[in-house]
Amino acid sequence: MQKAKQNGRSEIKIDDIGLNFGGLRALDSVSFQVKEPGVFSIIGPNGAGKTCILNCINGFYRPTSGKITFKGKELNKLPSHEIAKLGISRTFQNLRLYTGMTVVDNIMAGRYMLMNYGTIPALFYFGKAQKEEAKHREVVEQIIDFLEIQAIRNHVVGILPYGMRKRVELGRALALDPDILLLDEPMAGMNLEEKEEMARFIIDICERREIPVVLIEHDMGVVMDISDRVTVLDFGHKIAEGTPDEIKLNPAVISAYLGKPKE
Q1: pLDDT tens for residues 192-242?
Q2: CA 91, 92, 97, 103: dihedral to nearest 10 degrees?
Q3: How many CB atoms are closer than 10 A to CB 33?
Q4: Residue 13 C-beta-side C-alpha neighbours within 13 Å
């Protein structure tokens, strides 16, 4: 694994973000800030706008209003690949792996933007290309060890159990050597044991690499156990932010999840 990140290097600010799809207001003046290593979770009922936030951060969607800044640079008009180069990496709610390739090759694909050896050396695979690829493969092997997937490193991804494929996607996101990591429901569809393992990996990413993690997750038990701060969305509006203990007792959050009592 790469060396730990320095505090303050990975600050991301969301300022009054709005997002429209025609007449539908998916996000309405949402603001928050992530700057310390730790787990920052975004929760809310289905359709609250959680994934829309991640899509705005990494350039899949263009906010209708507001501003997103990272390392002092505005992200609103940058293409996704330029945002990735700045150090923002993510996983997806629905797996986006190369199912016909091996685990090693899928994680190696995450190093693509960090390769600098040019077309000719790559074509003939000599000199600088060979040496640089060896360094990238060393990082990939460290990620494989970290995620405890040595036994499946040469397996084709398409034949792996769902939980293992989720782990491989996390490995590919780490391969970019990110300064901030966006995780969109990394535990969806997993059993209890798989969720516990994924939670352990997320905590280790924060503590050992000091990478801030922005997490979307529906399992409230996991969210409350591993989060440092939690933001709550409801119908595109931010209705609360605070520590897990504060969020558990927040009346607006209880109402959003359980409904308002009849008067």
Answers
A1: 999 999 999 999 999 988 999 999 999 999 999 999 999 999 999 999 999
A2: 30
A3: 14
A4: 11
Q: Which residue has the tokens 């490193």?
A: 153
Q: Residue 103 corresponds to which amino acid?
A: V
Helix (H, G, I), strand (E, B) or coil at 21: strand
What gap in Å lies between CA 27 and CA 166, rounded to an integer?
Answer: 28
| DSSP labels, 139-208 | HHHHHHHHTT-GGGTTSBGGGS-HHHHHHHHHHHHHHT--SEEEEESTTTT--HHHHHHHHHHHHHHHHH
Give dist(CA 181, CA 202) in Å, integer.
10
**What domains are defined for the chain?**
1-87+179-263 (3.40.50.300), 97-177 (no CATH)
What's the one-letter identity of residue 72?
Answer: G
Decide which of 30 and 133 is more confident: 30
Please tell me the distance from the alpha carbon of residue 172 to that of residue 161, in angstroms, as a whole number: 17
The answer to whether the CB of 120 falls within 8 A of the CB of 171 is no
Asked if the model's pLDDT at residue 262 lies above 70, the reply is no
Tens digit of each residue's pLDDT (9 = 90 or more) over 6-22: 444 568 999 999 999 98
Rg (CA), the chain: 19
